[in-house]
Write a structure and sequence with these properties.
The chain is an alpha/beta fold and about 130 residues long. It has 4 helices and 6 strands; from the N terminus they run βββαβαβαβα. α1 runs parallel beside α2.
Length: about 130
């Protein structure tokens, strides 16, 4: 498994950790996803989509350590989903909880995002989609 860590700072209070396994690329978000930090997420997705051929094909976004997400962050996640669907790459969210879970439920987005408790559970589900 390879790891790329994009550290946050006072100016960028989001860290994106990228791990690769045989089933999926895991983008673990730590901190705040808002209008100032969405570029870190979209940049990580750009790198994932630039791989040719796409290996691993699945993408898991771990939001278990996301401390804040505003409408810009939610919009960025919707954009990520659209890009991955267009690239025929499955997406799963992991660790959805608290306010973020309520936002997804109230907006109906919990119906379009596949959400799982753990990365292992999401990996198994993606393995089934890819088979």
């Amino acid at each position: 498994m390879s790891v790329l860590d994009t550290p946050g700072s006072l100016d960028q209070p989001l860290r994106v950790r990228v791990c690769r396994s045989s089933t999926a690329v895991v983008l673990a978000l730590h901190g705040e996803l808002d209008e100032y930090t969405t570029a870190l997420l979209t940049g990580a997705v750009d790198k994932v989509l630039a791989q040719s051929p796409p290996h691993p094909p699945g993408v898991i976004v771990d939001v278990s350590e996301l401390t804040f997400c505003d409408s810009s962050g939610l919009g960025a996640l919707i954009g990520v989903r659209k890009r991955l669907v267009a690239a025929e790459r499955p997406l799963a969210l992991v660790g959805v909880h608290g306010m973020f879970e309520r936002i997804l439920h109230r907006t109906g987005l919990d119906q379009i995002f596949s959400c799982y408790e753990t990365v292992a559970e999401a990996g198994r589900a993606l393995r089934g989609v890819l088979a």
